[in-house]
């Protein structure tokens, strides 16, 4: 096994941090590694906002009460960004039509790949972190807090710092239930129930709801309105 694969397999989200800063040179390494992720047509359709000030972290925490945000040494906001695309396109055409699913997939996938690179780079330096997708449920307020212009939107945040918690790596679904040979294999419900039990064993006393209950909570109701409203305001839908 390579050191890289070992690092990837040891990943666990960290939500509690020590009171210790991340030096600028480490952060620059993390962000430079993030930038080297592949992107659709090399458009690099994302931006990252680095939040170091406690005031801003606290202001974000007021909107999105996740303890990792205010404890983080650095909080990174990954922004889906077609604002630069508009400026580039304008050099050649008067029409700019980023609205729709493709623009969102392009920018969200680019942001996600950069984000995963950042997290792994941070972990390789001894830091820990967690992705905070819940920023999307307050998209409009978060956009305002960070002064996001047209054609941009928050995709997720990332809290980073020196870990102040210990726990086991979270077990994944069995490989053969997510990786198929040659064609898709639809799964039966017993696969879900088996993984519910794996997750319950892993979580132990910390378990409040089962894995499939969380699926029901997420997908058993219409999506929260803030994400769509914000995307409409930013001219992306
Ligand atoms: C897109 C995305 C959004 C996430 N949002 C949150 C979040 O808002 N709060 C949180 O505590 N964890 C969040 N997570 C972390 C996941 O809960 C975590 O990655 C998952 O449970 C697997 O655990 P592990 O990362 O420790 O292996 C998010 C992860 C992803 C990929």
From TrEMBL:
Residues 218-237 are annotated as: Disordered. The keyword Oxidoreductase applies. GO terms for molecular function: oxidoreductase activity. Keywords: Flavoprotein, FMN, NADP, Oxidoreductase. Residues 9-161 form the Nitroreductase domain. The keyword Protein biosynthesis does not apply. It comes from the Bacteria. CDD domains: NfsA-like (cd02146). Signal peptide: none annotated. Belongs to the flavin oxidoreductase frp family. This is Nitroreductase family protein. It comes from Streptococcus mitis.
